[in-house]
Amino acid sequence: MSSSPVAARPARTPAPRTPGTPGTGGRPPRWVVAVLVANLVAQVGIVVTGGAVRLTASGLGCPTWPECSAGSYTPVYTPEMGVHAAIEFGNRLLTGVVTLTALAALAAVARLVLTGRRPAGLLPLAAAPLVGVVLQALIGGITVLTQLHPATVATHFLVSMALVAASTVLLLRVREGADGTPRPLVPRAPRVVARSAGAVLGAVLVLGTVVTGSGPHSGDAEHPVRLGFDTEVVSRLHADAVVLLLVLVVALAVLLRRTGAPRRPRRRTAALLVVLLAQGVLGWVQYATGLPEALVAGHMLGAALGVVATTALLLSLRERLPATPA
């Protein structure tokens, strides 16, 4: 019996490079990598702290925006608000940290571009986290003004996931360095499966917000607004999407092994599989135990890590060679 086209097609191997110079500009300085890692960590961290606001029912601890309470940008203690105002105000302050890391990331990449060590095409990507912070501030304001409507809360979360993905791409592209046309490192079949997994991950995230918007953690203990869907039905849909995602990632791992893919995409596929399995177990436990706050917060962290792992995997399926001089 003849082998399948996928198995028979050899994986492409990268062109040889001079040690220590992975791209046209060489390795970026360590301080640049540290800044970009800090930006990514901040983007993931604000997802977790934002979840803490919702899980402690502190979403309206600051009932107005951009002020925290009428006539004051800082919390005004009242017995009714209690600690909720401090929690919500603390999350707003953390937005300042995210802003600073986003500014630092843009400045670091701009310096590399100005010194000719990275292509100018990276500047829009470097600006994305900063633009995202401004967008998130506006969405956050709308969320407060709409009394934490689940649709605006979901938008807030999904934009955060997009910023986590963009920050991951920025970090890896700067480390990559080269500005030539991307060249696939693996055959078409695993690339299609990987892209399908990325699309299904997007569906998993959207369905997760539907589950959250229909469940008990509204972010406001007094006047919760919910989507009204049957939580059991949407939870099952969410779980089914997760199972499909796991199947695709396992299939990808098999294809990469059969086609002799390079070590990096195989390692990143394994890392994604570990994250997804942990998320699946955590999701099942939190559902079975009535959605305790600590497990829900861990699930949100896992979602962000899943986005990081998926983005890194997709980028590992190709390489960029130095641009050929005209």
UniProtKB/TrEMBL annotation:
Keyword annotations: Cell membrane, Disulfide bond, Heme biosynthesis, Iron, Membrane, Metal-binding, Oxidoreductase, Transmembrane, Transmembrane helix
Keyword Membrane part of the UniProt annotation: yes
Record's compositionally biased regions (Low complexity): 7-27
Pathway assignment: Porphyrin-containing compound metabolism
Chain segments annotated as coiled-coil in the UniProt record: none
Gene Ontology process terms (BP): heme A biosynthetic process
Locations listed in the record: Membrane
Transmembrane segments: 31-53, 93-114, 121-145, 151-172, 192-213, 233-256, 268-288, 294-317
Protein name (Swiss-Prot/TrEMBL): Cytochrome c oxidase assembly protein subunit 15
Lineage: Bacteria, Bacillati, Actinomycetota, Actinomycetes, Kineosporiales
